[in-house]
Amino acid sequence: MTDPDLRGVVPPVCTPLTPELDVDVPSLERLIDFLVDGGADGLFFLGSTSEVAFLPDGHRRQVLEVAVARVAGQVPVLAGVIDMTTLRVLDHAAAARKAGVDGIVATAPFYTRTHPAEIERHFRGVAACCDLPVYAYDLPVSVHSKLAGDLLLRLAADGVIRGVKDSSGDDGGLRRLALAKRERADLAGFSVLTGAELTVDTALRMGVDGVVPGLGNVDPHGFATLYRLCRAGDWNAAAAEQERLIRLFDIVRAGDPARMGPSSSALGAFKAALHLRGVIACPVTAPPQIPLAPDEVERVRAGLAAAGLV
Amino acid sequence: MTDPDLRGVVPPVCTPLTPELDVDVPSLERLIDFLVDGGADGLFFLGSTSEVAFLPDGHRRQVLEVAVARVAGQVPVLAGVIDMTTLRVLDHAAAARKAGVDGIVATAPFYTRTHPAEIERHFRGVAACCDLPVYAYDLPVSVHSKLAGDLLLRLAADGVIRGVKDSSGDDGGLRRLALAKRERADLAGFSVLTGAELTVDTALRMGVDGVVPGLGNVDPHGFATLYRLCRAGDWNAAAAEQERLIRLFDIVRAGDPARMGPSSSALGAFKAALHLRGVIACPVTAPPQIPLAPDEVERVRAGLAAAGLV
Amino acid sequence: MTDPDLRGVVPPVCTPLTPELDVDVPSLERLIDFLVDGGADGLFFLGSTSEVAFLPDGHRRQVLEVAVARVAGQVPVLAGVIDMTTLRVLDHAAAARKAGVDGIVATAPFYTRTHPAEIERHFRGVAACCDLPVYAYDLPVSVHSKLAGDLLLRLAADGVIRGVKDSSGDDGGLRRLALAKRERADLAGFSVLTGAELTVDTALRMGVDGVVPGLGNVDPHGFATLYRLCRAGDWNAAAAEQERLIRLFDIVRAGDPARMGPSSSALGAFKAALHLRGVIACPVTAPPQIPLAPDEVERVRAGLAAAGLV
Amino acid sequence: MTDPDLRGVVPPVCTPLTPELDVDVPSLERLIDFLVDGGADGLFFLGSTSEVAFLPDGHRRQVLEVAVARVAGQVPVLAGVIDMTTLRVLDHAAAARKAGVDGIVATAPFYTRTHPAEIERHFRGVAACCDLPVYAYDLPVSVHSKLAGDLLLRLAADGVIRGVKDSSGDDGGLRRLALAKRERADLAGFSVLTGAELTVDTALRMGVDGVVPGLGNVDPHGFATLYRLCRAGDWNAAAAEQERLIRLFDIVRAGDPARMGPSSSALGAFKAALHLRGVIACPVTAPPQIPLAPDEVERVRAGLAAAGLV
Question: Closest approach of chain C CAs to the CA of D146, in angstroms?
Answer without folding.
Answer: 14
